[in-house]
Protein 1
Amino acid sequence: MEPGLYTKGFKRRVNVALGLRSYDIAIGRGLLASFDFGNCSGRTSALCVVTNSTVWPLWQGRLLKGVLSAYTLIDPIVIEDGEHRKLLSTIETVWSHLLAHRADRSTLLIAVGGGVIGDITGFAAACYQRGIDFIQVPTTLLAMVDSSVGGKTGVNHPLGKNMIGSFHQPKAVICDIDTLSTLPPREYASGIAEVIKYGAITDLAFFEYLEQHMEALVARDPEVLIDVIARCCEIKADVVAKDERESGLREILNFGHTFGHAIEAGLGYGEWLHGEAVAAGMVMGAYLSEALGLLPMRDVNRIIELTKRAGLPVRGPSSLAAAEYLDLMRVDKKARNGAIRYIVLDSLGKARTQPADDALALASIERANALAATSS
Ligand code: NAD
Ligand code: GLY
């Protein structure tokens, strides 16, 4: 994408280098109204927004008054809010809407919402007429730093979360941090868990930056937010460029997720937010790294303190016994032949995949569960 395609308000740009499928992530303020969406694809005849019943009433005014108004617009597809709508039947609804409005292969979909909307829109775009272009306009912190980047798209199946999907890269990702002003605090904190993850797995200097700026980040300071989102996107872009299809390196992005998915599945999805489960899962992963003789205890404590300062849980739910995690982790998508693959830290800023004895994993869960919930 040419720099000229960005308009006022654009602050940072991160490129995801994937050859012909490369794209840019724009991060700034006021982008909903000023970004030239239609120009990203190079073959756009009409634009169609896919969004949800919470986000659209809040932000449609900005979008429709802006550059979007210069294009032929198909009626927006407004999906009922919630993870429970991330289903194949919703994808069919999207396709039916597009067919009914005679959308063709040059129609551009614009996903406006959190990770649920991004995953639905990306998958619908991947299959409609064998693949059309789409743009991600993430409106949650989690979606800005994680789900909108990297091309994983899909829906849940009654037998498992994110089990049906495809890789389909967007043409651009537009992070307008103004949209975060309406995001509920719990959802915002959930995104910070993924932010901490990036520092822990790849970048000690970024982890230290977060230690210095956590209160400003929690307060949604715009300058800090833009720097943080840009750094997270750079890290994710770098990992995805090296391992787009998750045959190795990309697995490190799952630090905290193996334990976290057990919490989400064990409680029933939606009880804890994804980032909350990942936060407690990272603490368990840090303890496991220490038990394996890799991570010094002082670094485990740094992860715990930073997580608490973000307002995130550091221990699992009291209703889930440590022994229950192992069964849940064995059926996780990342397990291979029932063997659990843990992401562990060699040091702060350096991660890898490693198997571990059940006894060590159990002890790590129990150590996290014994922690006090708030900062000392
Ligand atoms: P979400 O999409 O459900 O959004 C969370 C809540 O915030 C929803 O109620 C939503 O309506 C609301 N919301 C969104 N933007 C808002 C705004 N600006 N103001 C007010 N409310 C707003 O959840 P999420 O945390 O963004 O994403 C979680 C989803 O992402 C899960 O389905 C997960 O599987 C998926 N995910 C995908 C990837 C990937 O690589 N594709 C990575 C991580 C997570
Ligand atoms: N959220 C992990 C990944 O995109 O690979």
Protein 2
Amino acid sequence: MTSSTGIGPTLQALADLLRREAARGVESMAISHENLQRLGQLSLPKKMRSAQRSPSTPPAATPTPPTQPSGAPASPAQAPISIPTTSFPSILSSPPISDESSRRDALNALYRQLKSATAPRELGTLHDTIVFATGDPMASIVFVGEAPGEEEEKLKKPFVGPAGQKLDQILKAMEMARNHVYISNIVKFRPKIGDGRFQGSRNRAPSQEEMATCLPFLHRELEIVRPKVIVALGRTAAEGLLDRGGSLASFRNTVHDFAGIPVIVTYHPSYLLRQESGPPAEARQSKRFVWEDMLKVMELAELPISAKQRSYFQ
Ligand code: URA
């Protein structure tokens, strides 16, 4: 298994988040001398070596100074630099929230913001019901799916249909339960097929446009929860979260990085369900791949792994 550790992912995360801030209209920002020096040192080969981390030791999300409102005078300790198309990642820009009730409050506030968000609704391609997230705001593992389906929309909770039952089985094998992890989706509304009126139980993957309108909410959730590891369930979730295209196979077997948090990409539980009605050897192979990914997730989350768990597929 290869691991995208070191300077590359750090710079990639920085670039991704800077791009997102630019998309939000941020035109310039301030950076402290200290952090500016740190950035400068990133190009030194020695630093590059020391910046590498063990794949089993996730870095703590590093808070950076909050962005200065444009036009505000820079404090003497800060050198204003103009970065036209970039800014610092929002997930790194605020101090972590340490206690559970404050995290719940922050998530509730975010939910209220989503209720009045216009961008996803203006598309006209998503149903109205919000399906937000479920689980522990103190969780060390966050699972991210693509978008709710029919069952999720009915119960207003992610992963409560057949894919959710498969996810529960995976969690059980990890000796975890739903309330030990945090489960969310990139898109918070069920995507419509046609005008949505005659859709029945049919679901579809969200479009890039739909993901773009909801991603700021997921980013804020991740900023609040700050897990030790994020699991992207399926290609669509991986593309949305990592902000680039690719096949599931190309995303797997690498520890990706989202703003300093390791990301593991694995097969969507619905894929496992579909495989179950095909050749048994292929179904077993997919399950085995998912389990290998989950062992990596448990390592990154610093969870104990029993000999039995290690040998499930041996
Ligand atoms: N599939 C997803 O990606 N998310 C859900 O919540 C349910 C099914």
